[in-house]
Amino acid sequence: MSNPYAHVGAPIQVGAATFRNRITRTAHGTGFAIDGQPNERLIRYHEARARGGVGSLFLETCGVHPSSPGPLWTFEDRIVESMAPLAQRIRALDTHVLAQLWHGGAQAPSPTGGPSYAASPVADSIAGRVTLEMPKSMIDEVVAGFAAAARRMQEAGLTGVELHCAHTYLICSFLSPLTNRRTDEYGGSLENRTRFCREALAAVREACGPEFVVGVRINGSESVAGGIEPDEANAIRARLERDGLIDFVNVSMGGYFNFAKMIGAMHEPAGYELATSTPVTRAARVPTIVTGRITSLAQAERIIAAGDADIVSMVRALLADPELVVKSLAGREADVRPCIGCNEGCVGRRFAVGAAVGQTGCTVNPEAGFEYLGEGVAPADAPRSIMVVGAGPAGLEAAHTAARRGHRVSVYEAADEPGGAVRLSRAAPHRDDIGLICDWLWKQLRGAGVETHLGHRVDAETIRAAAPDAVIIATGATPRRDGIQRMRPALRIRELSPAQVVTPIEVLGGHVETPARAVVFDDLGNYQAIGSAELLLQQGAEVVFATSYPEFAPDLFRSFQRDAILERLNGFAGFSLRTRAVVEAVGDGTVTLGSLDSDDREVVRAGLLVLMTGFDPDAALAAQLREDGIETHVVGDAVAPLLMPHAIATGREAGAAV
Q: Is pTM beyond 0.90 here?
């Protein structure tokens, strides 16, 4: 029988090191380090991916200079002692560890409040701060910082380092014609624009010698007009190779001018970066790494077999299931918990306002980042009978966890299909992958012998008769129809007609006749209203998208989705946007929009108002059961109507608690 993973499973020589296979986990932020130093939480997180079978992994951005500290402070000598245990424990699992050496440039606010460093004085694309053009003395200082940081990583026992030369950060600002406007020896020609990068690499080589693995991460495309594109990226790669400066090249795309391409969400197809990476990787003589929504070993095998890369990176897929590699190599692909590309638990949580230290997590895997707390789901002391009411993501995760603990589990769902609200969300354009986790959990339950009942609504009397040892309530939430809006809670919409006012649930469920024109009102700032708007546009309606926020879907910026969605919507001639709006009245074929900033009003001719002002938890059944003294756990939207990370995490907690 042929080996389906013959290419993925083969070892590869990278510089002086031999990686046991072709799967890596490239750098991503975790937020776990404290005071710039690794700790047990960070080590356990990386250990889980190493134990799960990756041949190599890269640590998150390591600051090489105090002007841009980053999560890990490799500009300090004390990092050697704190990093050594991490290197030793990961290498003991036959996985190589490399550090990503980094200076954030314009994207890294100075700790002292001064200007950020960059090739030229251009405005930071996010905050608008004008940067400081680095003089030669400062360039020399940062070059020395790269060399000293690499030497510290070598002393700590790491296999090598990668210089971050992509994503609009400092070295990229020199490489890119978009941000390098210098007229000295560091600007203008490709030879000059690569000089800073070459000097840093040469300094690292001199400091660490030939046995230490050294590579770069570069952009195949910056995905913005005037930026680096594949031809120039290939020329950069060739220039670095010519001088023998690199042992590998890691090619990605996007940056701060195009966030959506840097970490593509579920709207992007698998391997979406390959089109701009392969012109670089196919021409390279050194080993190459590619990334970009690669979520299975089968995809990685095809990429390597086709000659598109030597090594494939999986980041979010290994957050979702750190054992993806070992499970797949053992023929257990069906047991791999899928990444759904939502960017909510990983990227979104890192950038969320008020997030605890901006720590990473995973929507579909509540254990990601919490490996240091224990070994996951523990077996129960004695089997119990557990009834789960509701087969949305929270209920499915609760049932799956309880079954893993050894309980006798039954699941009851009123609808004819599992998935809950997620099932309807999949009807929106570009959102089908959000349901992959529900598909997977349902199959896991069926395979584990869990009793599953679809089209079966239960009430308190039914539950009393069944007499389970414990009940988990996952009945979800109902979209609000009261018209109360977050910025004007005293306002009441006049003539709130059920015939003309619906929620996105009805639109996505196919229960609404497509009007010539609709107003979609978003009071939440995330995705809930957007799917219905895009579906109506696809069906030929004109859509006025009104929101109480000063900008379109602000909560989606942190998950790198907003800009791509807005670009799609603006591609429809019938789409228009109103910000800082409230809905004041609904008439016969009209919707009156008011302004949060003035007394202005706009009467919009529209046959439909799609109203998204929040949800009310469906917790009545739980209250009845508790009155009867039945052990009851409430999960997901029935607790609080939030996003899927909350739903699955509460499902896991309840399944572990019964």
A: yes
